[in-house]
Amino acid sequence: MFAVTVTFSLKAGCAEKFMPLMYENARASLESEVGCLQFDVATDSARPEEVFLYEVYSDAAAFDAHLGATHFQAFDAATADMIAATDIKTYRSVVQ
């Protein structure tokens, strides 16, 4: 198992445009990527410009495939100007 957490800090006023694109990326990942096992999108109304992702892949190669997927590349290009900062962390399962 390979887990990924992502925290996006959006530019002011961009959440309304960003979120539908984020939901579509999550949906497409779950539906079309065999190695994508979970893709959660979370927000908090107290921090409307912050979006947290929790993603689980079968292995690191599945995550690499996600990064190369057409739908991810389209999401990345469409949202690049909306994001002020991104914090990505990865984790490998140590218990089998």
TrEMBL record:
<dbReference type="Pfam" id="PF03992">
    <property type="entry name" value="ABM"/>
</dbReference>
<dbReference type="InterPro" id="IPR050744">
    <property type="entry name" value="AI-2_Isomerase_LsrG"/>
</dbReference>
<dbReference type="InterPro" id="IPR011008">
    <property type="entry name" value="Dimeric_a/b-barrel"/>
</dbReference>
<dbReference type="InterPro" id="IPR007138">
    <property type="entry name" value="ABM_dom"/>
</dbReference>
<feature type="domain" description="ABM">
    <location>
        <begin position="2"/>
        <end position="95"/>
    </location>
</feature>
<dbReference type="GO" id="GO:0003824">
    <property type="term" value="F:catalytic activity"/>
</dbReference>
<protein>
    <recommendedName>
        <fullName>ABM domain-containing protein</fullName>
    </recommendedName>
</protein>
